[in-house]
Design goal:
With about 190 residues, this protein is mostly beta strands. The chain has one domain (about 20-185). A hairpin with a 5-residue loop joins β3 (about 25-30) and β4 (about 35-40). It has no helices and 14 strands.
Length: about 190
């Protein structure tokens, strides 16, 4: 996937901004102009589950967050959980990014299925899907297993949480930029 910049009012003038993205989803801009892109990935081989429409999705560590800073593209973090049909179609995983203003980044990890599947004892327990993670500072680069990510999700799914999976997080202008648990942010 290729992200393109198009000048307002221009007729077809496109400038590549980022290339070779793996199912890009949400994006955010830092105050310095750095672009952050959530990449849903292409799933994996196990565990697998059946979605509401009857298709099979399998989980794997193929999600990522990429940054484009001063024209240079690099993976900020990789090996985030991803779920997709065989071949990588319809992927969910890193769905959106939100900058907290303190150097930390919140990433929403989608699922596309009932989040009760991720509850303890569920077939997707421990995958990290249907949750929010917080990446601490730009130094949290590389493989997810080596970052200081904090996962936030309901400990026991409730009627409300079984139908809502966070797909986006925004910092309200009146919210502080100091470290605040991601779960208190405006997530939809």
């Amino acid at each position: 996937m290729l992200l393109l910049a198009v000048a307002a009012g221009s007729a077809g003038a496109q400038t590549p901004v980022a290339a070779a993205l793996d199912n890009p989803r949400g994006l955010a801009f830092g105050s310095d102009g750095t672009l952050y892109v959530a990449e849903a990935g292409r799933g994996g081989t196990a565990p697998c589950y059946v979605t509401g429409d009857g298709s099979e999705n399998c989980v794997g560590p193929t999600g990522a967050v990429t940054e484009v800073r001063k024209g240079v593209q690099r993976r900020l973090v990789s090996s985030l959980p991803s779920a997709a049909e065989p071949g990588g179609g319809g992927a969910t995983g890193p769905h959106d990014v939100s900058l907290l203003g303190n150097g930390n980044i919140v990433v929403s990890l989608g699922l596309g299925a009932n989040p009760a599947l991720t509850a303890p004892g569920g077939p997707l327990a421990g995958t990290g899907l249907a949750s929010l993670i917080q990446l601490r500072g730009r130094s949290a680069v590389g493989d997810n297993s080596q970052t200081s990510a904090r996962t936030r999700r309901p400990s026991t799914p409730t009627a409300a949480s079984t139908t809502r999976i966070p797909t986006a997080c925004l910092r309200r202008p009146e919210e502080p930029t100091s470290p605040t648990p991601a779960a208190t942010r405006s997530c939809a």
